[in-house]
Amino acid sequence: MGLVSMKPILEDAQKKKYAVGAFNIVDYNSALAVVRAAEDLSAPVIVQTSVKTVQFWGHKTLRAWMEEIAGASSVPVALHLDHCKEVDFCKKCIDERWTSVMLDGSAESFEKNLAMTREVIEAAEPAGVSVEAELGQIRGVEEEVVARDDAHLADPEKAVEFCKGLNLAAFAPAIGTAHGVYKGEPELAFDRLEEIARRTGVPIALHGGTGLKDEVFRKCISLGVAKINISTQLKYAFIDGFVEYTAEHKDYDPLKVIAAQCERIKKEMAEKMKLFGSAGHAGQTEHPL
Known about the structure:
Layout: H1 6-16, E1 20-24, H2 28-41, E2 45-49, H3 51-57, H4 59-71, E3 77-84, H5 87-95, E4 100-103, H6 110-124, E5 130-135, H7 156-163, E6 170-173, H8 190-200, E7 204-206, H9 214-222, E8 225-230, H10 232-249, H11 254-276
Parallel strand pairs: 1-2, 1-8, 2-3, 3-4, 4-5, 5-6, 7-8
């Protein structure tokens, strides 16, 4: 099918009350595993790259990998740049034909965040690239984020003001989740999530998905979440699949180890796709670039 725009994928998910998994891959093998999981379930999927991953492998290498993998796939695959804080880096990915980018200006003032997002959208729209933005601060678990801290959450009024007039594919408001592995049970602001989703009308992206309970995912989806990020769990599967196979088999055939690693990632990411409800939705909408 080839790489497609993220925007119609999320619009369909928003309309039908399911969520599309967005998985932060680290190499060719992990990207292949994610797409194969989506193929098995006939699910649309978003393959995400962090800025660090793009810097490590290079824009052209990652794009070539994804063009090959998605081109041979029967499901819609979006290639998304995750949590980029620099306008110029977003523009570079747009030039290199990523199909979606996220400008994360959440650490900046409201006005600067909005201005940076607008600049990225102006560069993205002529190329058919969709854009995600963030408001509030989605922090890391190294900051021991468990109790609800309203000072770091997205304000619904500001969210409405931010999204007004912007052609966003996804909006990531801070609602109490965090990146990494939780050290306790996070307290999510479901009230804010529901209000922001309803009043902005934009598909909501949930960051910090690793470690949340199944019922929390289901509730978030029911309240307007259409995109769920999974990064830490994929990284754990990437390492554990390698280490556990080697320890059990004492096998130094690299291809067997890589195959085991691929299967571990594929299995765990497929479980998330089924939980999010995206299975069976691969061919139900057009995905023009």
